[in-house]
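Q: A reviewer asked whether we had any structural model of the full assembly, not just the individual parts. We don't, so I'm hoping you can provide one. Inputs are below.
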Amino acid sequence: MKHFLITTALVLSPVVHVLGLSRPEADTLTARGATAYSTGDYTTALHLFDSVRTAYSSPALLFNIGNCHFKLNDIPHAILFYERALRLAPGDEDVKANLELARQNVVDRVNELPSFTLGSTWGRLRGGRDADQWARRSLWACLLFFALLTAGVLAGNRAIRRALFGAGALVLVATLIAVAFASFRHNEVSDDSEAIILAPKVDVRSEPRESTTVLFVLHKGTKVTVLQTDNGWSEVQLANGSVGWAPPSTLERI
Amino acid sequence: MNSAIHRWLTLPLVLFVGLSGRAQEIGFTAAVDRNSIAAGEYVKLTVTLTNSQEGFEAPSFGGLVVVQGPFESSSFNYVNGRMSSSVGRTWMLTATAPGKYTIGAAKARVGGGIIQTEPIVIEVSKGAARPNAPDAAQGQARDPNLFATISLSKNKAYVGEQVVATYMLYSRYANIELSKYDLPKMDGFWAEEIDLGDTNWEDQLQTVNGLQYRVAVLKRQVLFPQRSGKLRIAPVELSCVVNRSFFNRGSAVNTRSNAVELTAMALPPGPPAAFNGAVGELEMVVKTDRTEVKANEAIELTITYAGRGNLKLIEAPKLNFPSDLEAYDPKVTDKISVNASGMSGSRSFQYLLIPRHEGEFPLEPITFSYFDTRNGGYRTIQAEPVTFRIAPGDGGPVSAIQRPSKTDVEMLGKDIRYIRTGDLQLRTAGKHLFGSIPWFAGMGAPALAFVIFLGWRRKQERDHSDVTGSRRKQADRVARKRLSEAEQALRSSDRNAFYDALGKALHGYLADKFGLGPAQITDVIVRERFAAFTNGEVVAKDYLGLTTACDMARFAPVEDRPKQQIFDEAVALIGRIEQLVRA
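A: Here is a predicted structure for the entire assembly that you could use as a starting point for your response.
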């Protein structure tokens, strides 16, 4: 218990700038964006959606921006935003469908290692809820746990007390699971190691320097993992394990 | 083809002359027997006016000297009821000095107008006798008695516009067999041959620079330039055998035609979306045999492209039929003729449509775009929109429950899914509940509250802890300790100490057991306390009796019982009380 309190005291408050854009204003802008999209004016729609993105975020907003890019035939950016949306809402069918369609336009075929699937239940559990939902659950579970403990201490009858403590133990397990999930999803969402190639063609070299050996060539829309950066160059790893250095400003992190 | 030429060429020339009289056209020609001579040789100039009785003026001879003439001649033919006549004058001319001489135009007044002959250029070389025999011309490119030409119907054309190329053979030999000719390879063209049937000589002689030639059209082709730029058609190579007769094996003559060049102009940029390469002068007609049918009955939709142009390159239009309208691949019907004027006719696409469900099916407007060569621009024709009204199919009166046959939902296209509309559930960017201060506070607050609760509760317990309870528990132990002190006193025969310890043991035990102060051990209270237990009165009486005995023995040297007996009674009593309280 004390551990939490100490940690709370040590954690610095994250400073959030909303950049002078209030929530109703943002909603108005996105509504206008949706109208522009419905009339086929994708450029305006993209501009409107994008103006909100600096202050607010949501899977639906990222999905819409991805759609605008797709309609404007900017496939790499479409993939980038679909991936971002998918990271916030991993189970979203619409995003998955559109990402699938966008990926058909990617030139590079990298043999991805088969993703580890523990069945759809796990995916739904993990995916359907975002980190904040799990965090909220953990809060409620924690509250319930201590409520049960208190009730157990106060209970006069020995049998009732035992039942309350048993329930408390179960709720404690639930709390730990919720915290674990929240932490897991939080790490997943905060993980920016993956990136999308935006340049039409990228020579991936053996060293972070021009005129070194070209190991392989990547094309726009391909997903890579960034291992480290050096002087603007990024060491990228493909899904099949190949590693090399990509020049600056050829990719953007998801 | 060669055999055909052979057959015709072996006919006497006279026959052609005879045949030529069938027309009543007025003709006026000037002809020479050759147009290049050596100085001193003669040229025969003949001016002929046919089918006119008018006179004509002699041409100027341009420096040539008349040696003989003019000789007048006239002929009159009556063939198959057609009359023809001709009047001619012949001069024999010569030149003394080499150079170029031009025989001017002869003029004739016919019917109030004036007609003229073409001027003729005569080249006169130096006096040496020039080889003139056909045998010597073998292998030479230019034989004045035989040549071929390629002529195009136009020299500039758009890509895809049709141009007619005509290959002609000119000959002055009386007898000629065409043994071989190679048409040039077409580079940059799509060529369609015009079927001319057998090659034959034309009826009329043609005069080229004063020499009269028999002319045969070898071949005609309709050419469609496929790319822009200067497109060259290579010369035609011809091998002929001339003057073959029974007595003469004849001699081989080779000749080649001129090369021609066509300037193909690129189509203007920005073609309409429906443009698919058609060029020419075209029209489109869309016809349906009926627009109102019952379901499952066939409809015929015919799209006809007609006019002049590259009709054979027109492909079936891409039509987006409503998906419930079953459409079969179109039947293509060509009525295309390729003749000297080019390719013309029509191409039809006949679609068979079978509506499977009732309803209204508007057809997308059928458009056709082509490049119109008349005004050099694109033209788009849009057909009248067609709407099919489909009535329910024949099923008769409903005698049984009718179910429509199930069909799979057909995927017609692929596109991304639509954007999310409405509330996008925006959240402040970069702000997460997990790991934030509110979250830690929310997790810590219940724990803190619980710790505080536990602490408070412990303090309460300490304050209200049951002192009597602990005394009660310890009563027996304290009593035994005092009894053992009494026992020691008994052994050492210390009378006062014995009674003192025994009295304290009895008093202290009861005070501890019932949570009473030392002053509270009175007869009344003891009796009250013991009354709560069964047989309590007896125990109370024994207790009181024992304490009285103890008190008596302590303060008075009187002992009603021996000390050992009192001690045993006290031990037994405490055991009885202990039993009584536990029960």
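A: Points you may want to mention in the reply: The CA atoms of residues 112 and 239 of chain A lie 5 Å apart. Chain A touches chain B through 58 residues (CB under 8 Å).
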